[in-house]
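User: I'll paste a sequence; please echo it back and then give the predicted structure.

Assistant: Echoing your sequence first, then the prediction.
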Amino acid sequence: MKPFVITGTQRTGSSTISRLLGYHESVACGWEWPHQVSWLRRVEACRRGLRGDFLLLWHRHRDQITAAISAKSAWIGYKSLFRANDKWLVTPSAAASLFMDRYYETLRWWRSEPEIHVVHLVRTDNLAWLRSKFVAREVGSFAAGHSYPEDVSVHIPIRASLRRLKMKLWLDTKLSELKRTNPYHVIRYEDLLTDMKGVTSDVQQFLGLEPQFMPNEQVRKRQSAGIPVEQHIRNYEALRAALERAALLNAPFEK
């Protein structure tokens, strides 16, 4: 089977894309394999997984990918997401979370195997991204298909958010450089919301597949569907103004 990875920062639609891709009869798409694996074995577990050896994966991930593989499977992939936070000094490149996520080792591995196809998810609406992170944490619900309550509201720290967004931009910029070594396809979260069928078709064609679409009734509803961002953020006006002053309201990202 040919290998692919779904990557990006958290809260960018990776669960939806993995389900849409995994629906195709030729694709076996795993979950977030680095989770529940010891730090030392994290990269090796994923490397072996793409080769069909799932022994080092967490037992639930092992069971899921084993069940997803069929005689028609031509592609195998998994999700590898990186944390964008405010816990860094001087530069995001020195953030402790990069060390914990084995970020540098993971990218070195992907670059060393140019047959690995990279699907990079980006979210350009930074206010909506911040809302997603803080409301999901507040209600303890991170998976698509579980709607946020309309009456929940959060206060989002402004200074920490500016640092968090700078790291998000740094991560997406660095991940986009994989196009120099690997087959690379970028998906904007906002495009996924407005044209799910078109986005699905494009990523399947990137893998050289004839499009197969998940029925609408099986597509999970996004958590914030129909709820304005300002309804969930108590300090919305101050946060928006701060992001505008820092030129971080939207993440500029070229396909």
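The two ends are 27 Å apart (CA to CA). The chain is about 40% helix and 10% strand.
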